[in-house]
Write a structure and sequence with these properties.
The structure holds three protein chains of three kinds. Chain A is of the alpha+beta class. Chain A has one domain (7-365): Orthogonal Bundle (Cytochrome-c3 Hydrogenase, chain B). Chain A is built from 15 helices and eight strands. Chain A has helices at 47-51, 60-64, 72-86, 92-120, 124-145, 167-190, 193-199, 207-212, 218-222, 229-232, 253-277, 330-334, 338-342, 347-357, 361-365, and strands spanning 7-11, 23-29, 32-39, 154-155, 158-159, 295-304, 309-317, 322-328. In chain A, the strands form three sheets. Chain A has a three-stranded antiparallel β-sheet. A three-stranded antiparallel β-sheet of chain A has the order 6-7-8. In chain A, strands 4-5 form a two-stranded antiparallel ribbon. Chain A is globular, with a radius of gyration of 21 Å. Chain B has one domain (98-343). Chain B contains 14 helices and no strands. Chain B has helices at residues 2-5, 7-21, 26-63, 79-89, 100-116, 135-156, 160-191, 196-202, 208-211, 213-226, 238-241, 251-276, 287-306, 314-343. By secondary structure, chain C is an alpha/beta fold. Chain C has a domain at 2-88: NADH:ubiquinone oxidoreductase Nqo5 subunit (Beta Polymerase, domain 2, 2-Layer Sandwich), CATH 3.30.460.80. A five-stranded mixed β-sheet of chain C has the order 1-2-5-4-3, covered by helices on one side. A two-stranded parallel sheet of chain C has the order 6-7. Classes of the chains: A alpha+beta, B mainly alpha, C alpha/beta. The interface between A and C is medium-sized, with 32 and 31 residues. Chain B: One of its GO terms (cellular component) is plasma membrane. Chain B: It comes from Thermosyntropha lipolytica DSM 11003. Chain B: Keywords: Cell membrane, Membrane, NAD, Quinone, Translocase, Transmembrane, Transmembrane helix, Ubiquinone. Chain B: This is NADH-quinone oxidoreductase subunit H.
Chain lengths: 366, 344, 141
């Protein structure tokens, strides 16, 4: 018998498929993963410490830089948390604009997920198709705020600028074309034999494990737990929209992939309803110029981000800066499950697992 | 038309005659002619690859809704030349912990092996450089040597990614060589010869792709795997193994690998044309134009596959070879043998 | 929820209870944390540890747990005050593996030691980093 040995190999932080600065220290037996350790912090920017030296308004742009792939979702979470702290309620129109922007962000983020998964498993063309379509959302973001990727469009208490005129035809034509885009993805990727062989029955995450590890968002739903904060505890005006929660059965990579494709459809449904019901009127609530929440007041506000439960825990000491701000980053906690689902799989499965967990390292490392 | 058809053959005869008239022995003239032929092959391959790389980038651009190279020259045709100049002038980096000799020789071995493939290909009627009687056997055995170069690169680089890539390459070669040979064997059984020109001539009436459709499909899959092209580009697999066996290579050494891959690609496409699509046989055009045309069409299919499909998983790849391809090719051989026996 | 409150009042008399958006349980001594968490997890099916963080109140640290029962969506918030001089607490990893990364983060940034954590190392900052930046008395070098 030949003597064999395990090799330890560092997948990342400089690796094409680690979505930023993820570092998975992998012990391999040939191509089999024996053990895996996740190392984080390569893009740590001490956002929580920075928050303590910025006023509530000044901190808004930092949120976009957390999850830069779904720019409006973290901003919305933060603004709503501060509004909750202040006890402000928004004008109707502002709430609707928020929902539209948030769901567009979710679609953009999920499109990027599909594209990056495609390229991670070797289907380069899938990436380009998704980027082409995501570009249209980026254009809409540019119309509203002048910024494409990290457009701090939302304000505490609503918006400063209303949606521009050209936004409505753009979003309408995007929604009309969306089914064809999804058809294209499904033809190119979902129906592909090789993709199915790569994703089915790999990286299985059972519902029990998903809950125990605090996995949230589409990853949790892919494991079969129908838990969506937009439904379970509607924030903003999400209780007014009719939409379904796509749920997977097995929690394998394929489920995580399909759940996200179906979530794009649900998001589009929400946007359509929001566009139809959106009233005219004010877009900003009365917010004091200097935001000083009550002393000793604290709030934990959570939203359903494209990555999972994004929570903001803010403690106020009565000053104009947060005394303590903590971000419950879904990417960070979802990554905790990576060793569990990768152990016993192949090296190639690890790449697919990272891709389907869909971490954004800017958010995980903060 | 007659002149065009035999242009190169006449040229070669004229050179030999001229040399002999100058007082050279017949053997000496033949040797010089052979050297000229090899030089031509090297030249043709280089020019061909420049076109090929440009073509692949253009086609991948078309598939991916991009423009592809479009700055240098009309439709960016000079892009590859610019790239080649860039690669040639890059610093030659050899990591300090590598096995220097193996590291340096690996790309050279790879390119030499892939050039050797061209020796037996009949580019036109009577236009093989060496008209070997064992042409098919030669092609397959030399072709599989390429894996040694990859193994050398992977081992010599002293890098775990490279080693993984090399391991994959060897495993893949061992698994896919067998169905490849078995599929070609079915063709050889019908043609009754291992000489490529004879095989082409045997397809006078009907292409072997129609007589051996199963063998063609298995051959094509196995050939894609042998070429390390997508969806079977395991040894490189940039999304998994960064660049696999090529991770530590840069500049011209990396370019040699790149060139060798395209050299192989054209050689295997030409072999496909010879074995299944009547090689240099075709109407109207001279025979030495038909082979490149057919090879390019086959190559387009290779491009198309690579830019559409995701990469298959390593264990699925192996399982597919041993559990599907080999039984199918074996059964195909048995059926072919029985049919041939009863037709006799 | 009613049973839970009764049982907490009976077994953990030192716990103060506030009912707001979350059912907030405030604990003064770290020792009763683990039994309380165990009761929530095993007795009342609070299966999802969503958030675990800590606040530095200059005179004390407060470790905050946000725990849900999903998909029923019942929510509990636990706040444990611990001594600033000896910041130690029992780890919740044995109950919820979700606590693994989050306790490491709290240890990393706030310097609270979780007893019984399988691998209490810095997670966001480099291993040779000195100090815990989210403490209010942290002075950047």
């Amino acid at each position: 018998m030949l003597e064999t040995d395990f090799i330890t190999i560092n997948v990342g932080p400089q690796h094409p498929s680690t979505h930023g600065g993820l570092h998975a220290e992998t012990v391999l037996d040939g191509e089999h993963i024996v053990d895996l350790k996740v190392h984080l912090g390569y893009v740590h920017r001490s956002v929580e410490k920075i928050a303590e030296s910025r006023t509530y308004t000044q901190f808004i742009p930092y949120n976009s830089r957390l999850d830069y792939l779904a720019t409006h979702l973290p901003t919305m979470g933060y603004c709503q948390a501060v509004e909750k702290l202040l006890g402000i309620s928004l004008p109707e129109r502002a709430e609707y604009i928020r929902v539209i922007m948030a769901e567009l962000s979710r679609i953009a983020s999920h499109m990027l997920f599909i594209g990056s998964l495609a390229i991670d498993i070797g289907a380069t063309t899938g990436l380009i198709y998704c980027f082409r379509d995501r570009e249209r959302i980026m254009d809409m973001f540019e119309m509203t705020s002048g910024q494409r990727l990290i457009s701090s469009y939302m304000r505490i208490g609503g918006f400063n600028e209303d949606l521009p005129e050209e936004f409505y035809p753009a979003v309408k034509s995007f929604l009309d074309d969306l089914p064809y885009m999804l058809d294209e993805y499904n033809n190119l990727l979902t129906g592909n034999e090789i993709l199915q062989a790569r994703l089915k029955n790999t990286g299985i995450l059972s519902a029990e494990d998903a809950i125990a590890y605090g996995v949230s968002g589409p990853n949790l739903r892919a494991s079969g737990v129908a838990y969506d904060i937009r439904k379970a505890e509607p924030y903003g005006i999400y209780d007014r929209f009719a939409f379904d929660i796509p749920v997977g059965q097995k929690g394998d990579n394929m489920d995580r992939f399909v759940v996200r494709i179906r979530e794009i459809e649900e998001s589009a449904r929400i946007i359509r309803q929001a566009l139809k019901d959106m009233p005219e009127g004010e877009i900003k609530a009365k917010v004091p110029r200097v935001i000083k929440p009550e002393k000793g007041k604290e709030v934990y506000h959570r939203i359903e981000s494209s990555k999972g439960e994004l929570g903001f825990y803010i403690v106020s000491d009565g000053g104009e800066k947060p005394y303590r701000l903590h971000v419950r980053a879904p990417s960070f906690i979802n990554l905790g499950v990576l060793p569990l689902i990768s152990r016993g799989g192949k090296l190639q499965d690890l790449i697919a697992n990272i891709a389907t967990l869909d971490p954004v390292l800017g958010e995980a490392d903060r | 038309m007659k002149g065009a058809e035999t242009f190169f053959v006449d040229l070669a005869r004229a050179i030999v005659n001229g040399l002999e008239n100058m007082g050279m022995s017949a053997l000496g003239a033949e040797i010089i002619l052979l050297i000229i032929k090899f030089a031509c092959i090297a030249g043709i391959v280089t020019v061909n690859i420049i076109i090929l790389i440009w073509l692949e980038r253009k086609i991948s651009g078309f598939i991916q809704l991009r423009l592809g190279p479009n700055r240098l020259g009309p439709w960016g045709v000079f892009q590859t030349i610019a790239d080649a100049i860039k690669l040639l002038t890059k610093e030659d980096i050899i990591p300090s912990q590598t096995d220097k000799i193996i590291f340096r020789t690996a790309p050279i071995v790879f390119i030499i092996i892939s050039l050797m493939l061209y020796v037996v290909l009949p580019f036109g009627d009577g236009m093989a450089i060496v008209d070997l009687n064992l042409g098919v056997l030669y092609f397959i055995s030399v072709g599989s040597l390429g894996t040694i170069a990859l193994l050398m690169a992977g081992w010599g680089s002293n890098n775990k990614w490279s080693l993984l890539g090399a391991m994959r390459s060897v495993a893949q070669m061992i698994s896919y060589e067998i169905p490849l040979v078995f599929s070609l064997l079915a063709v050889v059984m019908i043609a009754g010869s291992l000489n490529m020109s004879d095989i082409v001539n045997a397809q006078d009436k009907i292409w072997f792709v129609f007589l051996q459709p199963v063998a063609f499909i298995t051959y094509f899959i196995a050939a894609t795997a042998e070429l390390n092209r997508g969806p079977f580009d395991m040894p490189e697999a940039e999304q998994e193994l960064t660049a696999g066996a090529y991770t530590e290579y840069s500049g011209m050494r990396w370019a040699l690998f790149f060139l060798a891959e395209y050299t192989n690609l054209f050689a295997v496409s030409a072999l496909t044309a010879i074995m299944f699509f009547g090689g240099f046989k075709g109407p109207f055009l001279p025979s030495w134009l038909w082979l490149p045309i057919k090879a390019y069409i086959i190559m387009l299919v290779f491009f198309w596959l690579k830019w559409t499909l995701p990469r298959i998983r390593m264990d699925h790849l192996m399982a597919f070879s041993w559990k599907v391809l080999i039984p199918v090719t074996l059964a195909n051989l048995v059926v072919t043998g029985c049919v041939l026996h009863f037709l006799k | 929820m009613g049973d839970l409150l009764k049982e907490i009042r009976k077994n953990f008399p030192s716990v103060t209870i506030e009912e707001d958006e979350f059912l907030t349980l405030r604990i003064n001594d770290g020792g009763s944390l683990l039994p309380l968490l165990k009761l929530l997890k095993t007795g009342y099916g609070f299966n999802y540890l969503a958030n675990l963080t800590a606040v530095d109140y200059k005179d004390k640290f407060t470790v905050v747990y946000h725990i849900y029962k999903i998909p029923e969506n019942e929510k509990v918030c636990i706040k444990v005050d611990i001594n600033r001089d000896k910041p130690e607490l029992d780890s919740a990893v044995s109950l919820w593996p979700a606590a693994d990364f989050q306790e490491r983060e709290v240890y990393d940034l706030m310097g609270i030691v979780f007893r019984g954590h399988p691998n209490l190392e810095r997670i966001l900052l480099p291993a040779d980093f000195v100090g815990h930046p989210l403490r209010k008395d942290y002075k950047p070098a």
